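pasting for the record
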Amino acid sequence: MSKKKVIDLVTEELAPYLQKEGYTLYHTEFVKEGRDWFLRVFIEKAPEHPDEWPGNVSADDCEKVSHFLSDRLDQLDPIEQNYYLEVSSPGMDRPLLKDEDFIRYKDRLVDVKLYESIDGKKKLTGKLIGRSDGYLHIEDKKGKVLDLPREKVSKINLTIVF
């Protein structure tokens, strides 16, 4: 089964359970690292009110979802290769992946990794201004707004501030 089909199946199988139990799906990935395959599912607590954002999950929440998904995948047995199932929170340094993530975390500090350097830098930290027309807009420490072509951005995560 292809990576995309695995992700689609997991999303479809999890949706009713997550809704019933008060969780939302942040992201799913099925990746090969070295010789091992990993099915990673990132969840959050569903917001109590429609205008709120999802909440953080505990280890118990992750364990609960992991047991459900593991049992369901054992019943269906759709994945040919051996894999490790990991269910977790997206974390404090969560990746920004969807349009709503860029809206939700506007004005927050982000770490940006680039495929190739811009102005001699491949890593940047700045305030997320937004994204539009294929560009990611970041304000650097000096207040300068950088318009980064989206195709040059390999990864963008929230910055952990202590």
